[in-house]
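In this supplementary section we document a worked example of the pipeline. Step one takes a protein sequence of length 105 as its only input; no multiple sequence alignment statistics are reported here. Step two produces a three-dimensional model, which step three serialises into structure tokens for compact storage. The input and output of this example are shown verbatim.
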Amino acid sequence: MVREQTFLGHDNKNPYHHLREFEQLFSCLSIAGMAQETLRWKLFPFSLSERARQWYAHNIGKVNREWEELRDRFCLAFFPISRIASLRKEILDFRQDEKESLGAA
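The serialised model returned by step three reads:
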């Protein structure tokens, strides 16, 4: 199930969406005798492939087994601040033409 929606790390994909999907799926799983945190760490790499899996292998030793730190690094790596700024600029520069409906704009 985890591999069904793998994140490749391509620029046009949103890591926040991947994490939301992963965490929703993860919340439905449990293995008797295994802590939820351990299960999360074991499954997450299987939700990644290509560039994202390479990133994970390179960064796993830098987070000291803290999920929040891994999640934050993951999002910044694949949705950098420059992309956030670009999207913010698009929103701020929005203009509706005079005869254009809001929906069409």
